[in-house]
Specification:
Length: 174
C-alpha cells in the first residue's frame, strides 16, 4: 500500500467518525425560538441628550493666582493738586508696556553717567536717569548697581494723582 492511499483511507475514517451520531437538536431548538419571535418588535433608539456649551465668563476678573489687593478706604491717600502727569510731553517707547514686564539685568557706565539695562518689551534696553518706564508715567530717579528707583504717578480714584515709588532690583543669573 502506498503512502498516498494510507493518507486517503485515514482521512475517510476521520470524516466518517464526524458524521456518526451527530445531533443537531440544540441548533433546531434555537432556530425554532428565533422563528417564534414577533417580526415587528424592534427596540426604540435611546433618547439623545443635546450638548450644553459652557462660556467662561470670569476672564475679566482678577486672576486667582495673584494675591488680592487690600484697599483700606478709611486710610486711603488722597491725591495732591500739585501732582499730575505731564500730558504734553512726547511718550517714550518703554512707556507702552507694563512696568512688571521689565527686569534689571545689568548696568553700563561711561565717563559721564551710569546706564541701566532692562530686559522686556522684546529685548534689552538701555535707560538713564530721567527716562520714563511703564504705563503709569514712571520716571527713573536713581540708577544704582543693584536697582533702579522709579516714581510712578497713578490716579487716586477720585480725580487726583498720587506718587508711588517702585524699584526694579538686579536679576541675578538663574
Amino acid at each position: 500500500m502506498s503512502f498516498s492511499r494510507l493518507v486517503l483511507v485515514t482521512g475517510f475514517v476521520f470524516l466518517a467518525g464526524c458524521g456518526v451520531g451527530s445531533d443537531f437538536s440544540d441548533l433546531r431548538t434555537y432556530m425554532d425560538e428565533v422563528r417564534a419571535k414577533p417580526k415587528g418588535a424592534i427596540e426604540p433608539l435611546p433618547t439623545f441628550q443635546p450638548y450644553e456649551s459652557f462660556t467662561y465668563r470670569a476672564a475679566s476678573l482678577r486672576s486667582p493666582f495673584q494675591p488680592p489687593v487690600k484697599i483700606d478706604v478709611v486710610t486711603r491717600q488722597k491725591g495732591a493738586p500739585e501732582i499730575k502727569p505731564d500730558e504734553s510731553r512726547v511718550k517714550q517707547f518703554l512707556e507702552g508696556f507694563n512696568i512688571e514686564t521689565f527686569e534689571m539685568v545689568g548696568t553700563l557706565r561711561n565717563d559721564r553717567q551710569l546706564f541701566a539695562l532692562v530686559n522686556g518689551a522684546g529685548g534689552v534696553h538701555r535707560v538713564k536717569v530721567g527716562d520714563y518706564l511703564g504705563r503709569n508715567h514712571g520716571k527713573i530717579l536713581v540708577i544704582d548697581d543693584s536697582k533702579i528707583d522709579v516714581m510712578e504717578i497713578v490716579p487716586d480714584g477720585e480725580g487726583g494723582w498720587l506718587e508711588r515709588p517702585r524699584s526694579l532690583s538686579l536679576k541675578e543669573r538663574s
